[in-house]
Structures are given as structure tokens and as C-alpha cells.
Amino acid sequence: QLQASGGGLVQAGGSLRLSCAASGRTFRSYAMGWWRQTPGKEREFVAALNWSGGMTSYADSVKGRLTISRDNAKNTVYLQMNNLKPEDTAVYYCAPIDWGTHTNLWHNWGQGTQVTVSS
Fold first, then answer.
1. I need a labelling partner for 10 at 20 to 30 A (CA). Which of 19, 59, 62, 92 fits?
2. Which of these, 96, 80, 92, 106, lies nearest to 33 by C-alpha position?
């Protein structure tokens, strides 16, 4: 079971730090990703990090503002979100990721966390 947390309401230009933890299962050996979804739209890829934390991939829309990281000892993945924009408003999800296709390896999205950025 994956659970994202740390979302909230923030003004444009503000920051949030999202966390993602798994219960009952470890993802230490997996590349991990973050996605986001707004009503009426498909879920879109945001960021990915390989198992060791040495390689990252970001959607063009978030480069330079969002940073993905992980703590394998805690079985937790993070998404530091800086200089937030209203278009970042969405429900954010995490999951193990297929690096080539940016798809969810576990096919289970778990609980997302709502991020709302006001202008």
C-alpha cells in the first residue's frame, strides 16, 4: 500500500514537500516516480529517481522547481516542490516506475495527496 502525504494549500511561489511511504512492501530496489492528476485529465508523469538515487528524470514543466529524492532506509520517497505555480495544482501520486515508459510497475496507485496552489 502506497500513501502520499504532505500536500496542502499554498500561494504561488511557495513550497511543499511531499512524502511517499509503503506499508507491507519495500520499494528499495525499484526506481520510483511521482505523477499528478487533475479532474478530467489523464495522470501525467512528473519525476523519477532510480533505485540508488543517482539518476533522475523530470517532466519539462517542473524542471528546476521540483526535486525527487529518496531514503531507502526509511522506504520513503520525497518530492520537494519550490516556486509552485497554479498549474501545479493536482493530486500527486507515487509508485515504482518503469524508467522507459513512465508507467506504474505496481498498477496500484494507492492514496494520493492534494496540492492546491493559489494565484
1. 59
2. 96
Total residue length of the chain: 119
pLDDT in tens, 43-75: 999 999 999 989 999 999 999 999 999 999 999
Q: Are 8 and 18 in contact (CB under 8 A)?
A: no
What angle (nearest 5°) sits at the alpha carbon of residue 8, between those of residues 114 and 62? Answer: 70
Question: How many CB atoms are located within 10 Å of the residue 65 CB?
Answer: 15
C-alpha cell at 9: 494549500
